[in-house]
Amino acid sequence: MFKNLNEKDKKKIYSLLSLGIVCVLALIIISYIPSDKKTNADKDTAQVNQQEEPEQVSENEQQDLEKKLQKILAEIDGAGDVNVMITFESSEEIQPAFNSNSTTETTEEKDAQGGERTVTTSSENKTMITSNSNSPVILKTTEAKIKGVLVVASGAGDSKVKETLYSAVQTALQVQGHQVQIINSK
User: Keywords, A to Z (predicted)?
Assistant: First the structure.
């Protein structure tokens, strides 16, 4: 096959074959190394997990809020044993910061027969801004909205105690009167 070629041409062919083999080996090795896409997917998963953690924390905070309110209401004279349940309309909302780029390209085409065509192409790219520790930068956090409060107290049979509990709940949680229900326990 290479008999009719001189030494210089044979060296070029062998060099090209060697280069081809090295390229094939490099592609095989690269396919086994995790790519940036996989790394980015892992980072995105980590960011989603970080965003889920605040929701779990807010559930704990909501339970803590119930316990604090229960403790405070139990201190009211005549309230007796107190149990509190708070329902929430929405959970805590976190708005992360984004960098966004949007481009719009319009192309007008005219053909020889007098026809015209306008093509508009637009694209938008959003990237979440993260801090040095790869946690998202938060622009705004909206607290969970309280839907209703139920208080069961052994002293709620007395109208003065019931009114005091009612006012205390409204003041402590900054909720309207129709969102609070005080019930006498057995």
Answer: Membrane, Transmembrane, Transmembrane helix
